[in-house]
Amino acid sequence: MVKDNNMGKLHAEKVNVYYGDHHIIKDVNLSIQENTVTAFIGPSGCGKSTFLRLLNRMNDYIENFRKTGDILIDGNDIYDKKVRVEELRKRVGMVFQKPNPFPKTIYENVVYGLRIQGIKDKSKLDKVVEDSLKQVALWNEVKDKLHQSALALSGGQQQRLCIARTIAVEPTIILMDEPASALDPISSAKIEDLISELKEKFTIIIVTHNMQQASRVSDKTAFFYLGELVEYGATDQIFTKPVKELTQNYITGRFG
Amino acid sequence: MVNKKEKIIESILMLCATVSVLTTIGILWVLISESSSFFSKVSIKDFLTDTQWTPLFAEKHFGILPLISGTLLTTFIAILIALPTGLSIAIYLNEYAPKRFRKIVKPLLEVLAAIPTVVYGYFALMVVTPFLQKFIPDMAGFNALSPGIVMGIMIIPIISSLSEDALYSVPKALREASYGMGATRLQTSFKVLVPAATSGITVSIILAISRAIGETMIVAIAAGQQPRLTLNPLVPIETITTYIVQVSLGDVVQGSLEYQTIFAAGIALFVLTFILNNISYFIKKKFQEKYE
Amino acid sequence: MKQKFDINRFKDNAFKYFGIACTLFGLAVLSVFLINILIEGLGRLNWQFFTSLPSRKPEKAGILICLLGSIWIMFLTALIAVPLGVASGIFLEEYGKKNKFASFIEINISNLAGVPSIIYGLLALEIFVRILGLGKSLLAGSLTLSLLILPIIIVSTREAIKAVPKSIREASYALGATRWQTIWFQVLPAASGGLLTGVILAISRAVGESAPLIVIGALLYITTIPTSPMDDFAVMPIQIFNWLSRPQKGFIENATAAIIVLLLITFMMNGLAIYLRNRWQKKIKW
After folding, report:
1. Is A93 in Cβ contact with B181 (below 8 Å)?
2. Pairing of strands A22-32, A10-19
3. Is the pLDDT of residue A1 over 60?
4. Weakest mean pLDDT among A76-80, A127-131, C280-284
5. A86, A88, A159, A162, best to mutate vs chain B, most B CBs in 10 Å
6. CATH topology of domain B48-291
7. Minimal CA–CA distance to B152: which of B85, B60, B245?
8. Do A87 and B182 touch (CB under 8 A)?
9. Contact A75, A91 (CB under 8 A)
10. Average pLDDT of chain A, as a whole number
11. pLDDT (0 to 100) of residue A253
12. Helix axes B2-41, C100-114, angle to 10 degrees
């Protein structure tokens, strides 16, 4: 496929998803530009998380999962038979709702992605650990205990570690599935700051329940409802003068 | 009135639960009392260091080592078969296999553990040994290898089922984190799931070892009755359990030294399995605390 | 994203086929064994084989005595072990929570479950055969096997009771039921499927067991049908063991035929247990 600049970094066209008989995502079209933060909002069960997980094919192992339509990253169909899903996931990283560090040391958590690629060079690994932890502003807190268990960190630290682990493999897109919802307000604010910084280097897509958070961190916002993409546009516009009444009702808290 | 009835019921239930304690006490008492008269005639040092076991011969030796070596040899062969196979099955069923396949195969494999052991003894003696003799002509009709292999097949489901349960209970978040980093199923299994499930897997292996050590009929039928201190799997040997069977089949006079030897052998067997069972019990307890 | 040979991908696929191979290995061995048994023994299975007493001539020998012995053992063992085991399980799960005595019993049971069966034979030889003077009777045999399967029944009773939702208990208490009434009228019926599964599996284990019975001396050449629990007996696995240790080919054939019968009993019990478990698991989703 020819690369078309209008399509942006990521482009979804007429995407439908079914789990068995359930129609989860309905005819979604969406383009996301490079080095932006896009927020997916909508009530629980609206399909925003499912859609996010389509983008690095985390739904692949679900039985009865079926998808139609195309999802292109840099102009390439990521569901093409020739695409290796592992390669895709190295380029499209993911941060989950609850911090999920491996029950290993902090160091081993960060280098996990490099180790599975077969990189053994100690000095390279050391450098990546330092760089990644610095980027998530965790280096000063943990530099003396890199070889202690990651499970001893606080929830907020664990989540930043998970982000460090993700950026260590140098993805171009980072998917975040409600990354701050399980954290206290201070840790949550730190994650938000971090997202704004990471935007310089990565394209970020974040699913969130928190309207204020969406308006603070994102450039663009997509509102999902019952599996449909209701409205998609600049965050300012969505939150101040939404086109659709449904969007208006949701962001003013009349349902959801 | 109601209260009194409730109390009586509770006491009856407690009494029933006490039976298992009495069983343990009974086992310990029987083993210790009978073998203490044995050890009043044979020194513990001879028992543990003599390299011959010939209580039924004219020239008597009472060294348990040949029986222990026979037991450990067959057990080792069994684990050599069961561990790689069982663990691979567990990983395959947990991470690769379609759900429907897993649902059919798991109970089928558990059939392997339900077959009476005397039937396995028949297989070892009449099927596996003749088959192996085609490739290893100087293998004896009774040997450690084929009962070891058959025992290994028997304990595959212990390892595969329990390990699969352990892998399955690893939090989904860890699995997703690994896949999200671009790991393959194999990398996720070996670098994340197996380490996280170590305790459960270890418990399954210990249980399998303990089961193999205590297994009686397979070795009694196919391994022979010649206590010998050897690592050669091709010659007849004797395990602790086989020795007890051998004496039980004969006309040994009750109360004689020969009669007491089976309790001395029994205590060696009990101690071996007791240690293993307790290790696995404590691993299991620690593991539960960690995840609850 | 689409590129040259990927070693990780290769290993991943290689392991997939290795895993399939391992799984099929287990199943293949199982089928080879079963087919072999059928080929060797099916021809010997006739009416005479089921109705004949033991004999020194293989073609005249039959399994009547040991089949009846196994059936006796099955019922006597169930009669002893099921009430004891279920009662212990109820005590530990419903009454003994966080009680030192209960946790002591628990360690104890987990240990007993791992004690080799032949050790139970040594226990029985001393206690039942000698001290209680029961001899090599059916009663001594079933007492031995009852102790052996007791831990299995206790553990599965506890699992079955644990699976009953708390809400059912609370509903019963809220209506003024006592603890025992709640257990008897609500918990046990709700747990019956799981309970039955565990009991059947345990009995099936007892029917296939032979080592402890050999130790108490139940390897007898008996020619009379057992009619009371105090009679001497033989069981199927021991008859098989006995025939396997004879050199004549005819006896080996008898052994395989008897194995077919024993396996049929075992598989039927296990099949029933699996069927009940599946039905119960479907039902328990309240």
Report:
1. yes
2. antiparallel
3. no
4. C280-284
5. A86
6. MetI-like fold (1.10.3720)
7. B85
8. yes
9. no
10. 90
11. 81
12. 50
- C80, pLDDT greater than 80: yes
Instruction: Give the pLDDT confidence score for residue B1 in this predicted structure.
Output: 56
**Residue A191, φ and ψ in degrees, nearest 5:** -65, -40
pLDDT in tens, A138-175: 999 999 999 999 999 999 999 999 999 999 999 999 99
Average pLDDT score over chain B: 91
The pLDDT assigned to C130 comes to 87
Residues of A in contact with C3 (CB under 8 A): 87
Binding partners of A (≥3 Cβ pairs within 8 A): B, C
Task: Tell me which chain A residues have a C-beta less than 8 angstroms from the C-beta of C9.
Answer: 84, 86
Q: Which chain B residues contact residue C11 at CB under 8 A?
A: 184, 186
Nearest-CA residue of chain B relative to C11? B186
Question: Which tokens belong to A8?
Answer: 């942006």
ipTM of the complex: 0.90
Whether pLDDT at B197 is above 50: yes
Interface of B with A in 195-234 (CB under 8 A): 195-196
* First CA to last CA distance, chain B: 40
Sheet containing strand A203-207, edge to edge, reads A92-95, A173-177, A203-207, A37-41, A220-225, A228-234
Q: Answer whether residue B130 shows pLDDT above 70.
A: yes
Q: Please report how many Cα atoms fall inside a 13 Å half-sphere around the Cα of residue A216, on the Cβ side.
A: 16
Contact present, A233 and A254 (Cβ < 8 Å):
no
Does the beta-carbon distance from A90 to B178 stay under 8 Å? no
- For the stretch B218-247, pLDDT in tens is 999 999 999 999 999 999 999 999 999 999
Q: In the numeric block, which tokens belong to residue B244?
A: 């007890």
Contacts of A169 in chain B (CB under 8 A): 181-182
Q: Which amino acid is at B166?
A: A
Q: Which of A83, A86, A116 sits opposite C2 (nearest CB)?
A: A83
CB contact under 8 A, C115 and B215: no
